[in-house]
Model the fold of this input.
Amino acid sequence: MGFILGFIKFIGDALLDLMIMAIVINAILSWLVAFDVVNLRNRFVYQFSRFLDAVTNPILRPFRRFIPPLGGVDITPLIALIVLQAFKIYIWDGLLFTSLLRFGGTE
Done:
């Protein structure tokens, strides 16, 4: 049972890390587009931006409902990163640690 919980922890950690990276890259890309460093008329940049929006919007949308932009700056990626990191450290790891203690981790 410990092997299965370890595998679930590995997959969950990887997915959370990928989501955190996607949010950071999406925020950086939006700044690059806003300052005309990259152009959305470039097909690759446009498709990459659409992909990142599709991946990160389900996480960012609930935060955007309650947190308005401050001075035209969207701070929801920062809040989402803090919440995801807190979830990963305090809830995800604690939940799996408790499960390992309950079901035994030596197999």
Residues 15-103 form one domain. The chain has one domain: 15-103. The chain has three helices and no strands. Helices lie at 2-34, 43-66, 76-103.
